[in-house]
Amino acid sequence: MDVALFDFDLPPDRIALRPASPRDSARLLLLDADRTEDRAVTDLPALLRAGDILVFNDTRVIPAQLEGMRGAAKIGATLHKREGPRRWRAFIRNAKRLQEGDAIDFGHGVAATAFDRAEDGSFALDFHGDEPVELLLERAGTMPLPPYIAGKRATDERDRSDYQTMFADQPGAVAAPTAALHFTPTLMAALEAAGIAHTTLTLHVGAGTFLPVKAQDTDDHKMHAEWGRIDAVTADRLNAVRAGGGRIVAVGTTSLRLIESACGQDGVIRPFEGDTAIFITPGYRFRGIDGLLTNFHLPKSTLFMLVSALMGLERMRAAYAHAIREGYRFYSYGDASLLLPEG
């Protein structure tokens, strides 16, 4: 498909620079088979049904943004995928000043050697020493805010908690599964009281999620792979919900992509562990999910293509136009939408 079909104009002031406070006070746009309604995240218990299950991503964001020196040259690195115990693939700023075999000093006793430059310009970084890389990043790294936020303000200490969901448990993501940022213990208690269950899976979100689609046709775009896991207990539970008439509602596109990666043509979700580079565009037949809670996405992004596949391109273009007119806040720290294609 022509990537230009997924373009739209977004006023810069619609980009949220901080999350709503409290988190569950964010606005919610409901889209189902025949409704488009302005609601609030706190309405979720009334918008879902007893017997439904919400699926959260329990990945934890690591401080994956690093600034260092290669000699006299400033080098920036954004880690985006673990390749070994001490090795990470990283997008590099000022990459023209970096060669394979060069060492980068990130300060605080943290250094790494660059090698294996890929076609996309990324390098593999091997971190020096014996300390776990997670400890090194805690010393030298900062939270990797999306470029559309980081370009407008500096990352600060508040982001260490703001850019982490209440489900964050498994370290490894370099971007938050932001739909889950809206959830609080109070909201979870209300959902449980309404008979709505929840479970978790793990998908370590990579920085590739923010890369623009540079191809003119979706067929020519290559997705970056991300590692994920659904264990047998979770897969069995999701299948049982479906068998009992409940709906599987993914919280975030990361949860959705992993469920769809683990689901066979027969609609059965199976245990999964490994990389997925699934790319969902209009024409895709969803097998594993019945709904999606997600934030508002960038023009011409793979995520806007995904929601257009779920609800229809014209429906989503109209919904986003409505959201812009009504002052909804966009992107990672913004408001949410609940997409239920069958109502």
From TrEMBL:
Keyword list, A-Z: Cytoplasm, Glycosyltransferase, Isomerase, Queuosine biosynthesis, S-adenosyl-L-methionine, Transferase
Organism this protein belongs to: Sphingomonas gilva
Catalytic activity: 7-aminomethyl-7-carbaguanosine(34) in tRNA + S-adenosyl-L-methionine = epoxyqueuosine(34) in tRNA + adenine + L-methionine + 2 H(+)
Enzyme class: transferase
Family stated for the protein in its record: Belongs to the QueA family.
Protein name: S-adenosylmethionine:tRNA ribosyltransferase-isomerase
Functional summary from the UniProt entry: Transfers and isomerizes the ribose moiety from AdoMet to the 7-aminomethyl group of 7-deazaguanine (preQ1-tRNA) to give epoxyqueuosine (oQ-tRNA).
Gene: queA
GO biological process, alphabetically ordered: tRNA queuosine(34) biosynthetic process
Gene Ontology cellular component list: cytoplasm
Major subcellular site: cytoplasm
Pathway where this protein functions: tRNA modification; tRNA-queuosine biosynthesis
